[in-house]
Amino acid sequence: MKKIRWGVLGVARIATAKVIPAMQRGQLTEIAAIASRDMAKADAAARELNIPKAYGSYEELLADPEIDAIYNPLPNHLHVPWSIRAAEAGKHVLCEKPIGLTAAEAAELIAVRDRTGKTIGEAFMIVCHPQWIRTMELAAAGRIGTKRAVIGSFGYFKLDPDNVRNIRAYGGGGLMDVGCYPIKAARMFFGEEPVRVSGSLVRDPNFGTDILASGLLEFPSGHCVFTCGTQVVPNQSMKFLGTTGSIEMEIPFNAVPDEVSRIHIDDVVEEFPPCDQYTLQGDAFSRAIFDGTPPPVPLEDALANMKVIEDLVRSAE
After folding, report:
1. Residue 98, preceding bond cis, omega within 30 degrees?
2. Residue 18 is a catalytic residue
3. What are 225-276's pLDDT values in tens digits?
4. How far apart are CA 299 and CA 301, in angstroms?
5. Of 91, 97, 147, 307, which one is the catalytic site residue?
6. How many Å apart are CA 255 and CA 10, to the nearest integer?
7. Other C-beta atoms lying within 10 Å of the C-beta of residue 274
8. CATH: 3.40.50.2300, 3.40.50.720, 3.40.190.10, 3.30.360.10. Which one for 130-274?
């Protein structure tokens, strides 16, 4: 079976620990090369992960004619600049969330996609997981009645000043890193965009990044309330409420790939066999390249999510 040949920009942990091993198990994905600005790091990652090629610069990877697509897990401030360079080099691009630092950046990337004709999308892997697909199907079918509310949380505790999530200039902070998930979930659930938002932020006095963020999103059909943070006990939850029932996920965002996933529809539990959402994401994106169809999360959706993030920050400040 023909596969899309992927190159990876950087040796970020999400790439080396989760995404690359998962995509190597894909039916339509082949990890053919990895690049780092440090050749020793690229070589080490390539050896550890059995990747055929290693490059000591991102430019060398983008110049490789045998690479069809790029996975971009770089820090947030490098998402759009290097995705643009990849598309202009003739590569399709799967870029980590959030798509960029601003809605204006996302719009710029859309213009580049339209000009180059390349497939470019945001890596919200949850949209490919069966538990999310089923939840949205049940909600759309009226299983919980008329949609009314979404309640979510996502957070962790990290004090390392050198971690990109704690560097404001790099797009760090909880809202960008994990708050984007409940925002995306609510938009999926309602199938609408919020008409008004209210945000509250607490910033670290040293980092300047938001360590606690809460949002209220008002949709035409209902509300979403969520809290996220980078200095809270590790947690994640998502609950969807209708007029006659509710759906709650046990592990909504970091579903364990080798364990059963579960959602609770009132008193009924549905189980899903073990699967890796990063494998599913890679195959879905590769299939979109082959078929010339939109990727799982098109840039228009990424732009809409970015606008909500911006509005929440504007509200809070």
Report:
1. yes
2. no
3. 999 999 999 999 999 999 999 999 999 999 999 999 999 999 999 999 999 9
4. 5
5. 97
6. 24
7. 11
8. 3.30.360.10
